[in-house]
Design brief:
Layout (H helix, E strand, L loop, with lengths): L1 H26 L16 E4 L9 E10 L4 E10 L3 E10 L6 E7 L5 E12 L2 E10 L5 E8 L11 E2 L8 E8 L2 E7 L6 E7 L6 E7 L7 E8 L2 E8 L10 E8 L2 E4 L16 E9 L2 E9 L5 E9 H13 L10
Parallel strand pairs: 13-17
Antiparallel strand pairs: 1-20, 2-3, 3-4, 4-5, 6-7, 7-8, 8-9, 10-11, 11-12, 12-13, 14-15, 15-16, 16-17, 18-19, 19-20
Length: about 325
């Protein structure tokens, strides 16, 4: 009976979001798609949901390149309207595209309504998974960490809750940034949001708020990339919290301790179909290439997991060109 009740509640929540997305589709025409870095029309689709429909998602990717093994691991989650984020997977790959599942984690193991974003890190030969979830008992979004000598050994039953004092009720979607992680936070009513840098995340976490130069163009940080001594940020953005779940992607840069939007106004990277959403962009350096993983909307409004590969020199040139433009005037309506 519990499963049935949770399923009904999740379905009602999905229907409520659907109403918001219908409004979003009307307002969408005012927000131009811009493709200053990679072209979503030319990406490779890796995984799709069983149903191409609202609330059916495969995404929330988080790649980690293990230089010692010359292998890339990628965390991603599966979602449907009834169970929400019911399962997350860690897969390994040599070419970035052929994914071999090595670890499965379920919402049931975490006593959670839903599993959310996760991130892998390796320190002193030990793998650390930071994983966020919607806890049943408290109703909060939380982040736990679990450690193991192998990826296969990462388990829910030996996890530790991270004590992150941010002043916000909810914390989720960790992103590895060197030795640190970045987390996204929300107030109890989800009207206020923020991003925090967490130093010493594997031992004794210390948090510091990340500021945007213009809060109206702020969003959930999904990835960082440092090229030629300049740090860039990718982040999910929408004009209103009402449309959560169908974000687009903006690019910013570190400037005097803040993040400056390089796609000002209503410009953002989006999909060609469905709700036009393209989110959770994760950039990972592999040799002389940069692989971009992301979640993108499909014609029926489901979400698929995609990859786009570029050589590092091209990425650097394009980001520097983007930085040099005061107002973007590239293609729209992709």
């Amino acid at each position: 009976m519990k499963i049935h009740v949770n399923g009904v509640r999740n379905l009602i929540e999905t229907k409520a979001r659907s109403a918001g997305r219908k409004l979003y589709s009307i307002l969408l025409q005012e927000h131009e798609n811009e493709s200053p870095l990679f072209d979503p029309l030319e990406n490779t689709s890796l995984l799709t949901p069983d149903v191409d429909g609202e609330g059916y998602w495969v995404g929330g990717p988080s790649p980690f390149y293990d230089e010692e093994k010359d292998e890339l691991y990628i965390y991603y989650r599966l979602r449907d309207p009834y169970r929400r984020g019911w399962k997350s997977v860690i897969a390994k790959t040599q070419d970035g595209e052929e994914l071999e599942e090595v670890k499965e984690l379920t919402a049931e193991e975490f006593e959670a309504h839903s599993l959310e974003g996760g991130a892998l890190q390796k320190k002193d030969g030990e793998y650390i998974l930071y994983i966020s979830y919607h806890e049943k008992s408290s109703g909060q979004w939380k982040i736990d960490r679990t450690k193991s000598d192998t990826v296969e050994g990462l388990k829910a039953d030996n996890r530790e809750e991270m004590d992150l004092t941010t002043g916000f009720t909810h914390v989720k979607d960790p992103v590895v940034d060197g030795d640190d992680i970045i987390v996204h936070t929300a107030s109890k009513n989800f009207l206020d949001h923020g991003n925090f840098r967490v130093e010493n995340p594997s031992t004794d976490p210390e948090v510091e708020k990340i500021e945007f130069a213009d809060e109206s163009s702020s969003g959930r940080i999904t990835s960082t990339l440092e090229l030629r001594d300049q740090k860039y940020f990718f982040y999910d953005w929408l004009p209103s919290i009402i449309f959560t779940g169908e974000e687009k992607t903006k690019i910013g840069k570190a400037e005097e301790g803040e993040i400056e939007d390089l796609m000002p106004g209503r410009k953002a990277i989006g999909s060609a179909s469905g709700t036009k959403s393209l989110r959770y962009v994760k950039a990972v350096e592999v040799d002389e290439e940069i692989w971009f993983y992301y979640e993108k909307s499909m014609p029926g409004k489901g979400h698929e997991l995609c990859i786009y590969k570029m050589d590092k020199a091209s990425v650097t040139d394009k980001l520097e060109e983007l930085d040099s433009r005061e107002i973007l005037s590239g293609p729209s309506g992709i």
